[in-house]
Amino acid sequence: MFFYKLHRSRAENYELVLGICDKELAGKELRKNPKFMVSRDFYCDKECNEEEAIKLMKKCTIANLVGKNIVKLALEKNFITKENVILIEGIPHAQFFK
After folding, report:
1. Which candidate, 93, 95, 97, 2, places its Cα nearest to that of 47?
2. CA-to-CA distance for 62 and 68, rounded, in angstroms?
3. pTM (whole model) above 0.85
């Protein structure tokens, strides 16, 4: 299961930004310096399963992914490649733009 939140930019041609993370990472600080927080404000509005996560990744124009499970799903469904993935204290993180 995942937590996600959709954000709309204020630009004329707005972007739909998806913040999505593995449920167990919500609210955790992964690194202190520089700080990387899996902020509930950015990632946690609603809960979804894999099928819903795929639909959200298709719908958004920008995505910010944190966690082993969501990054694995994004790789399997070709939203990202291995080159898009970085590790933050051993936790996979990726972004994509359409």
Report:
1. 2
2. 19
3. yes
pLDDT at site 79: 98
Instruction: Give residue 18's pLDDT.
Output: 98
Q: What is the DSSP string of 1-41?
A: -EEEEEEE--SSS--EEEEEEEGGGTT-EEEETTEEE--HH
Q: What pLDDT is stored for residue 80 in this prediction? A: 98
Q: How many Cα atoms sit within 13 Å of 65 on the Cβ side?
A: 29
Domains and CATH numbers, the chain: 2-97 (3.30.1860.10)
Give per-residue pLDDT as tens, 4-35: 999 998 777 789 999 999 999 999 999 888 89
Q: Report how far apart, in Å, the C-alpha atoms of 11 and of each of 14, 44, 54, 60, 68 are.
A: 5, 23, 25, 15, 32
